[in-house]
Amino acid sequence: MRTCRGCKTKYEPVRPLQTTCSIPCALTLVRTKQDKLQRKINREAKQRLKTRSQWLREAQAAFNAFIRYRDTDLPCISCGDFTPMTRGGDYDCGHYRSIGANPELRFHEQNANKQCKRCNSHLSGNIANYRVGLLLKYGPEIVAEIEGPHEVKKYSIEDLKTIKADYKARLKPLGRRIV
Questions:
Q1: Nearest one of 126, 124, 147 to 76, comparing CA atoms
Q2: Cystine design at 160: which of 11, 55, 83, 174 (Cβ 3.0–4.6 Å)?
Q3: Which of these, 15, 19, 14, lies nearest to 3 by C-alpha position?
Q4: Domain ranges within the chain, ordered by starting residue
Q5: Model confidence over 5-43: pLDDT tens digits?
């Protein structure tokens, strides 16, 4: 007796390589395999059609998720508050030097820290207090490095794929998923 791959019932095979109990089960099994293959082809095609900005958005989302998880047990770097609900909701990944002004610091881990939505959005980063928080957390050398000059970086699609995969891999053992 064997188990049918289509309907999972027990059957007596008629031919030596028979894997299903009947022709309808065989057709269902073939259609299922074709559907899986077609989904895989479609998924790969979508990946090939993504623009650089889409890859940048996904890499940034992975980086931000990592930073928020890394700083889970820490308060907001600007105001020191532990309760995000009193400050406008959940936490963000706030950048000391903004992404628009310094795109080369977009994925710099010391430049990005957990920040409450109130400080990040409503107070435009609360930069003066953010700097004080950075000095306490990392020291003056790191703050000077962040504030100093940087080489302009233009991320290629391959760079962004690598960054996204790296931060997703760093979150995976922790049981976290990036949406």
A1: 126
A2: 55
A3: 19
A4: 2-49, 53-174
A5: 989 999 999 999 999 999 999 999 999 999 999 999 999
